[in-house]
Amino acid sequence: MIERTLVLIKPDGIKRGLVGKITSAFEDCGLKIVGMKLVSPSPEKVQEHYNADENWLRSVGEKSIKSAKERNEAINEDPIEIGKRIRSYLINYLANNPVIAMVLEGNNAIEIVRKIIGSTQPSKADPSTIRGKYSSDSYDLADSNKRAVRNLVHASEDKASAEREIKVWFNESELIQYSRSDEKEMYG
Ligand code: ADP
Ligand code: MG
To answer: In the chain, what are the domain boundaries?
Structure first.
């Protein structure tokens, strides 16, 4: 199924000069850029993007607790509270910093983009993925420096969040319809 997904190149990706390499990884897989802009988002915009959805706060907190357990660190904090703290780190990371927002379109775009970027923690991400190839950051380093994991990119996790997140960053008129010259080869 042809679908659309939202990708952000986070400030570390831009400041480290990785915009071309990151974008190429998506284009090389056949994904079409249908929207793209460089922005310096307000804290409110980042809060709207990382909205305080309770399930997401809990899942971020639980992932963090699981990783701490693997390092033999005991954590008694409520996962939602951990999720809220990480959300505030994310606002510091992205707000008033350069961010590229893009909408990518293609077959199973949401899942394919998540596969290309790799898992959240770059130190554990497969080395063939964007996060695994261009970063070595980890939860413990980020936590000890009281900041978000610098993992270069954000990508929507599922259809509902893709639809919501695209609207946070783009008006319908900013999304451009056109054909890539290889579409017939890929999809015909
Ligand atoms: P993903 O970006 O892979 O979808 P999540 O939605 O779980 O990951 O988390 C959103 C972002 O929050 C991550 O990309 C990362 O930048 C940051 N983050 C997640 N967990 C932690 C953590 N334990 N410590 C610091 N930052 C984190
Ligand atoms: Mg996520």
So the answer is: 2-43+96-187
Element (DSSP H or E) covering residue 105: strand 99-107
Decide which of 2.40.50.140, 3.40.1360.10, 1.20.272.10, 3.30.70.141 is the CATH code for 2-43+96-187.
3.30.70.141
pLDDT digits (tens, 9 = 90+) for 109-149: 999 999 999 999 999 999 999 999 999 999 999 999 999 99
Torsion of CA 64, 68, 71, 75, to 10 degrees: 180
Ligand 1 touching residue 60 (CB < 6 A) = yes
Q: How far is the CA of 45 from the centre of ligand 2 (A)?
A: 16
The pTM for the full model equals 0.97
Task: Identify whether the C-beta of residue 103 lies closer than 8 Å to the C-beta of residue 33.
Answer: yes
